[in-house]
Every structure is written in structure tokens, then in C-alpha cells.
Amino acid sequence: MFAKINSILGAIDDFVWGLPLIILILATGIFLTVILRGVQFSQLKFAISSIFRKSEKGEGGELSSFKALCTALSATIGTGNIVGVATAIGVGGPGALFWMWLAALLGMATKYAECLLAIHFREEKADGHILGGPFYTCEKGVGAKFPALGKLLAVLFAIFGTMVGLFGIGTFSQVNSITSAVETFANTAASNLTTVTIGGIGTYTHVVIVSSIVLAVVAALVIIGGLKRISSVAGVIVPVMAVIYFVMGAFAILCNLSKLSGAIEQIFQGAFGFKAAAGGAIGAMIVAMQKGIARGIFSNEAGLGSAPIAASTAKVEHAVQQGIISMTGTFFDTIVICSITGLVIVMSGSWRPELGLAGFQITNAAFQMLLPVVPKVVISFLLMVCLVLFAFTTILGWDFYSERCIEYLSKGNMLPVKIYRWLYIAAVFIGPYMTISAVWTIADIFNGLMAIPNIISLLILSGTIVKLTNDFFRGNKLYRIGYDFANNPVSAE
């Protein structure tokens, strides 16, 4: 039965993530890069220096720019950086990493644009909390030009956003990866783990079962606390664990510098199928492109429309201020963290199919191969801690995203949101019992569907994006972004 389900999911995934969507995402990134004159390159230094900017009195929003960024990063820096990269390279070969890089560089412009629009069209509710994201960008922005289309795109985005959280990035893939990492460490530290057979589902170790229970309980304690508690947890965990993982990966690469040039060669050759068998170059390139871009977007979420939901809560006076900060999330996520994972995997060769490894096992084996002087149990423990904390914050971040989508769909009725929280916690609990291939395929499908209405809105509102950008960087007077004091949308046309 599972084989048939996986086959059906695979067919749907191939359709959703076919060449049309890949071309649409890349073309949008290229288009925005051109009309914004390479804002992700020319303003990167300014963006990084703005991350710790102190909020000023009179600025609308709930969170500081730094906390808003950390909330977004909590959802982006997760299993995609450790397991997702391994899965992409395991299926698409080293060339998948090249397409992840390209998607990220172009995606920085996309992330800038979508987060800018989220600030511009956000709303302040009666109780003072902020609600914003692609659903309002579509409804207010696209809807001003094409009312029916704008509302349709807004509803579709909110529905897919809810599904991504419940069945995709937010729960199954994160929890599955967490329990897999814990089990891998347990197997390294001990042997003969006891197992339990759950009728009709499968056989699992006690480690997996206990981990799923503990994770669901801890997630529930934080999720019930809402945005402020989520942002507080993310503001501590994300920066610390990102630095620890970066240092660990950089050390592994520096200890094996002689292998670096060969790995880079493999990445570029694999990206264009140069080493594929005769006649298979195009097919190999398409697979590398598909897996690289899909996993890249899974990791950094550029174009997906999720980060703008967190960005909309930032305390800023001008939309560009948070847009420019938000795009650094893609840089840190993919160009820094994913590159570390990818280079370590390619340099070690742990991705090769003949080794029979999958997911976290590939990354774990890669670090062990490149750091033979470090005890395997120590490496497994450090990777496990990084993955568990990264994935846990992603679980929290995506609950927040999904709740905001439901709040939009329910028109402010919080009862569906409260019900969803418990469904989300239940999904966290059952995540370990889903097969790895099914988990990642489901996540890919909903990612692709969620991206479509968001990308369409960015293309339609490209003129607004350029005008807001020019108004800020040319030093024009700052105006109330997204809404005036009467909560009426401000036109940028």
C-alpha cells in the first residue's frame, strides 16, 4: 500500500515541480533582480548592518526587525539545511547544490519584494496585533487592479499555507528528521535498541516513540504561548545554533582543503549533466535542477510567501527597511548554512547511491568521514543537537504562519485558530511514523502550490515594488506604510 501511495505522490510532485514552475520561479527572480538593479547585491552590506537597528517610537508593528527576522529564520533554518540538502544531492547528485545557489541568489530579490509588500499591505487589528502576508498582498494589491483574481489568489495562498504547515514543512518533515537524528545518535552510542511493533504501521525503536511524545509536549507548551513566546525562543536558539553548525562545518572543510576543488568541479559538472551517460545529460541536468531548486526553496522559502507573514510584524517606518533585512535570511540560510552541508557531503562522497544512505544519515556520515579524529559519537551528538533545535524552531515558526493564514480565512475568528493548534500538535506527534520519501514529497507538493499565487502577485505588483524601493533609496519623505491612521490602504501607484 505504501509503495502505491509513494508512487502517486511522486507523480503529483513531478507535475507540480515540473519545468513550468521551475522556470516561473527562476524567471521571477531574474525579472525582479533586473528591475531592482541587483538590490540583493548592491544593498547586501546595508542590509546586514541594518539587522540590529533599534526600533524607533512611532513605528508600527509588534516585533523588532531582528526578532521578526529570527522568527522567519526559525522557520527557514531547519531540516532543509541538514537533511534537505542531503536528500537533494542524494537524488540529484552534486549538481543540485549549484541550482540551490542560483535559486538563492535570485531568491534574495524575491524575498525582498514579497516582504516589502507584506509591510505595505499589512493591517493593524483592533487589539493592536498585526496581520499581514501574501493574502493581503493579493487581496489589496492585486485586488485593486483585478478584484476577483486578487481574492482568489489570497484564499488559495492561505489554504495552501495552512496545508504546508500541517502536512509539509511545519510538522511531518521536521519531526521525522528529528527522530531520525536522535535514533542515529542512539545507534552510534549504543547497540541493540529495543523496538515496538505498531500494528499496520511498522516497527519503531523506543527512542523514536519517546522522542515523538516529548517533542509534541514541548511544542505544545510553546505554541500555546503565541507569537511573543515563539519569537523569544527563536531569538535565542537560531543565532547560537547557526554559529555552532557553521563552525563545525567550516572546520571539516578546512581539515580537507585538498578535496575542495574536486568537490566544486563535481558540483558544476553535475549541474549541467556533463558526466552523465551518453544521451542522458539533459535528463541528469533536469533532475539536478528540479531537486536543487525544490530543496532550495524548501530551505530558504524565497518566493513561497511564508517569510512575509513574519516580516509584516516588524516595527519599521518604511517597507523597504524590513524588505532589505528579510532578504538576508535567504543569504544566511542557503549561501552560508546549506553551502556548508553541501560541500561537506560532496567532499566526503557520502551521497553516492551505492552506500545506501538517506536523509540525515548522509550528512552524519559525511562529517564522520571528514573528521575521522573526532569520535563518531561526538559528531552524531553535535549534529543531532543542531538538527533537533533547528527543526524545533521550524515547527514553531510554521505554526505561526499557518495560524495567520487561518485567521485571514476565518476573518478574525480565533476559534478555528485554537482548534488548528491542537491539530498541529497532533501532526507533530505522528510525524515520526511517516516514511521519509512520502514526507519530503508531500512537503514539496504543498510548497509548489503555495508559491504559485505568491509569485503571480509579485509579477502583477512589480511596479509598486520598484516605486517603494525608489522612494526609499532616493531619500524621499517616508510615508505611512501599508495603512494610514484610518487603516486605509495607501496607494503606491
List the helices and strands and how they pair.
Elements lengths: L1 H15 L2 H17 L3 H4 L1 H7 L14 H12 L2 H14 L2 H26 L2 E2 L5 E2 L2 H12 L1 H21 L4 H18 L5 E4 L3 E4 H18 L3 H28 L5 H12 L9 H20 L6 H5 L7 H30 L11 H11 L5 H34 L5 H16 L5 H25 L1 H12 L20
Antiparallel strand pairs: 1-2, 3-4
Helix pairs in contact: 1-20, 2-7, 2-20, 4-16, 5-12, 5-16, 5-18, 6-14, 6-16, 6-17, 7-13, 7-14, 7-16, 8-9, 8-20, 9-18, 9-20, 10-11, 10-18, 10-20, 11-18, 11-19, 12-16, 12-18, 14-20, 16-17, 18-19
Overview of the molecule:
The chain has 493 residues and is an all-alpha fold. It is built from 21 helices and 4 strands. The chain has helices at 2-16, 19-35, 39-42, 44-50, 65-76, 79-92, 95-120, 134-145, 147-167, 172-189, 206-223, 227-254, 260-271, 281-300, 307-311, 319-348, 360-370, 376-409, 415-430, 436-460, 462-473; strands spanning 123-124, 130-131, 195-198, 202-205. A two-stranded antiparallel sheet has the order 1-2. Strands 3-4 form a two-stranded antiparallel sheet. Residues 476-493 have low confidence and may be disordered.
If helices are DSSP runs of H or I spanning 4 or more residues, what is the number of helices? 21
Main β-sheet description: 2 strands, antiparallel
- SSE string: HHHHHHHEEHHHEEHHHHHHHHHHH
Distance between the termini: 54 Å
Reading side by side through the largest sheet, how are the strands ordered? 1-2
- Name the beta content range: under 5%
β-strand number: 4
Can you give the mean pLDDT?
80
Structural class: mainly alpha
Helix content: over 70%
Poorly predicted spans:
476-493
Shape: globular
Radius of gyration: 22 Å
